[in-house]
Amino acid sequence: MAPTITPPRVPAHLEALDLAALVFEDDMELDAVRLTGAAPDAAVLGLELAAAELRDVDLGGARLPRLALRNCLVAGGNLANVAVRGGSAERTVFDHVRLTGLTWHEGVLRDVVLRGCRVDLASFASTRLERVAFEDCVLTQADVQDARLAAVTFERCDLTGADLTGARFGAGCALRGCTLDGARGVEALRGVRMPYEDVLAAAVTFAGALGIQVLDDDRDDAG
Question: For 24-36, what is each residue's pLDDT tens digit?
């Protein structure tokens, strides 16, 4: 059974703000706003967005330690190479967002949905993920080293080359229709639920993690 994820509560009426016109300050709070526009490479020590919508924004390369998202919808746009440490996202949806190279370290994701996102080369190292759904996402070479996951699902995701080393998958975690070719640290998936056909498809990856040598046929190599 998929985890029950609490959706964001975003009001119908939002104040429209253009990122390009904003004067960023540390410890900045924005409530009930609709953000558009671009502010690449912005740097804000503490930015909190609540009951907000980010529509096709460009924050590529921004440095946003302690970023806090609560009841937010992020629709489209570019958050590639954004750097977050100790940040949090709660009751938030990322819908078809470019998150390539995102770093979200030592933070929290809770009641979050990522749908149709590019999350390749991203890192969630040492982050807690609780009730999170990745749906139709590209997670090639993503890094979840030492992350703690509970009730996290991956549906139809490409995890080719992902690094799961040291991650802890707890109750309610599942992978369905995912690609695991070349993934590292797959021993961390112990206890995760997967359909039978997916286990067979990932057999070579699992065999490599166990040190099993896969033969081309069932004949002995004797002689």
Answer: 999 999 999 999 9
Tokens of 198: 């997916």
Place of tokens 């998150």: 99
CATH annotation of 99-223: 2.160.20.80
Beta-carbon contacts of 93 under 8 Å, excluding residues fewer than 6 positions away, are: 7, 8, 72, 73, 74, 112, 113, 114, 115
Burial classification of residue 8, based on how many CB atoms lie within 10 Å of its CB (0-12 exposed, 13-18 middle, 19 or more buried): buried
| Three-state SS letters, the chain | CCCCCCCCCCCCCCEEEEHHHCCCCCCEEEECEEEECECCCCECCCEEEEEEEEECCECCCCECCCCEEEEEEEECCECCCCEEECCEEEEEEEECCECCCCEEECCEEEEEEEECCECCCCECCCCEEEEEEEECCECCCCECCCCEEEEEEEECCECCCCECCCCEECCCCEEECCECCCCECHHHHCCCECCHHHHHHCHHHHHHHHCCCCCCCCCCCCC
pLDDT band at 79 (very low <50, low <70, confident <90, very high): very high
pTM reported for the whole predicted model: 0.92
Q: What whole-number percentage of the chain has pLDDT above 70?
A: 96
Query: 């039978």: which residue's tokens?
Result: 196
Tokens representing residue 3 in the block: 């985890």
Per-residue pLDDT tens over the stretch 29-57: 999 999 999 999 999 999 999 999 999 99
